[in-house]
Amino acid sequence: MLNRPTEIETKWQERWYSQRINEANRDERRKFMIIFAYPGVTGYLHVGHMRGFSYVDDISRYMRMRGYNVMFPVGTHATGNGPISLAKKVAAGDEGIISYLTRNGCPEEKLKDLTNPIGVVDFFNKVYVEQYWRRFGFMADWRRFTCTIYKEYGKFIQWQFRKLNEAGLLIQKPYYAPSCIKCGPVAVDASETDISCGGNAETTEYTLMKFKCGDLVLLAATLRPETVFGQTNFWVNPDVEYVKVRHENEIWVMSRPCLDKFHYQKEGLEEVGTIDGKELIGRMCTTPMTGRTIPCLPATFCDPEVGTGLVVSVPSDAPDDWVALMMLQTDEELCKQYGLDFEMVRSIMPIPIIDTKGWGPMPAVEIVERMGITRSGDPKLVEAKKIVYKEGFHSGKMNGNCGKYSDLPVDKAKDMMKEDMLRSTEADLFFDLSERVVCRCGEPVVIRKVDDQWFINYADEELTARSHDQAKRMHIIPTDYMTNVHGVLDWFRERACVRQGNWLGTRFPFDDKWIIEAISDSTLYPIFYTVTPYVNDGSVKAENLTTEFFDHVFLGKGDVNEAARASGLDPSLLAKIKADVDYWYPLDMNLGGKEHMTVHFPAFLMNHVAILPEDKLPKGIFVNWYVISKSGKISKSKGGAQPIPGAAEKYGVDALRLYYAHIASPFADVEWDEDIIENYVLKIDRVMRNVEELAAMQPASQMSGIDQWLLSRLNTRLAKVIGGMAQYDLKTLANEAYFEIPNDLKWYIRRGGNNGTAMRKALDIWVRMMAPITPHVAEEMWEHIGGEGFVTNAKFPEPDEANSSMLAEIAEDYLRALMDDTNEILKVTRITPSRVLIYTTSQWKAKGMAMAIDMAKKGELKVPTLTKAVMQDPDLKQHGKEASDYARKIAEDLMKRSKEELVKLEADFDELAFLTSAQNFLSKEMGSNVRVFSAENPEKEDPQNKARVAQPRRPAIYVE
RNA sequence: GCGAGGGUAGCCAAGCCAGGUCAAAGGCGACAGACUCAAGAUCUGUUCCUGCAGAGGUUCGCCGGUUCAAAUCCGGCCCUUCGCACCA
Question: What are phi and psi of A251, to 5 degrees?
Answer without folding.
Answer: -110, 115
